[in-house]
Amino acid sequence: MGIDRFLACQCPILYRLLCSKRTLYLLIQLTFPIIFTIYINTFSFLQRDANTTVICQVPLAISGNTFEKFNKCGLIINIGVVLIYFITYLKLRNQTALVSGLKFIFKSILYTVIFVILGWCTVTIVNIASIHLVKDVDTRNICMIYAGMGLNVACASNVFVFYIINSEYRTAIRKLFGMKSEVKLHTTLFLNSHLTNK
Fold first, then answer.
1. Which residues, 6 or more positions from 28, have their beta carbon under 8 angstroms from its beta carbon?
2. Which of 20, 88, 173, 178 has the smallest set of CB atoms within 10 Å of its CB?
3. Is the C-alpha dihedral spanning 142, 144, 150, 151 positive or negative?
4. What is the pTM of this model?
5. pLDDT score of 88
């Protein structure tokens, strides 16, 4: 998502070209996640040990040093996402007031990404620290399990962030709970439609 926003701000012509070829653009976006997943799953499969009992719970079922690789890669990816969003923010900050809509979109996505990245960073840092600092295996496993709570809270907070920021999400969420949504008329839309009808 961050790369998508970065391309939209930095290279709008290329972005429009990619959006016109949706299937190709989707395949390009999925290339890295697919390669990364194959890499992690392959190494995890190769390092399996039939004589070692593993806890059948995410993420403790990954054996060998694959789990550490997964956490280190996750930390690097999170740092990369922060950098991409920071560069995009600087780019948008220098734009004129005409693109205030883009700034609003970026702001709503930025809040969501901050929550999720804080959750993931907490998980990856605690997991890496547990591997190297905690000697007792059971204590290490408990630390890794509870580290995931930050990520769960971060992911769950997306609902509240979108509810506060985005009126369309607010309407959809209110409908899910059987509540009536407030209808607001935008004067600019009314004025534009009035002028075009003349």
1. 18
2. 178
3. negative
4. 0.64
5. 77
Residue 98 is encoded by which pair of tokens? Answer: 């005409």
User: Is the pLDDT at 18 greater than 90, yes or no?
Assistant: no
Cα separation, 41 vs 62, in Å, equals 9
Q: What single-letter DSSP state applies at residue 47?
A: T
Residue with tokens 């190709």: 24
Residue 64, classed as helix, strand or coil, is coil
Spatial CA neighbour of 80 closest among 68, 91, 72: 72
Q: Which of 34, 29, 23 is nearest to 5 (CA)?
A: 29
Whether 161 and 112 have beta carbons less than 8 Å apart is answered as yes
* 50-104 confidence digits (pLDDT tens): 777 766 666 666 766 888 888 888 888 888 887 887 787 777 776 655 456 666 6
Enumerate the H helices of the chain as residue ranges. 2-10, 12-20, 22-46, 66-93, 100-133, 137-165, 167-176, 187-197
| Residue range 165-185, pLDDT digits in tens | 767 777 877 887 888 766 554
Structure confidence by residue, pLDDT tens digits, 44-55: 888 877 777 766
- Vertex 136, ends 133 and 139: CA angle to 5°? 90
Long-range own/partner contacts, residues 59-67 (CB < 8 A, 24 or more apart)? 59/127, 59/144, 59/148, 60/141, 60/144, 60/145, 66/40, 67/127, 67/131
**Distance from C-alpha of 113 to C-alpha of 139, rounded to nearest angstrom:** 30
Cβ neighbour number for residue 165 with a 10 Å cutoff: 17
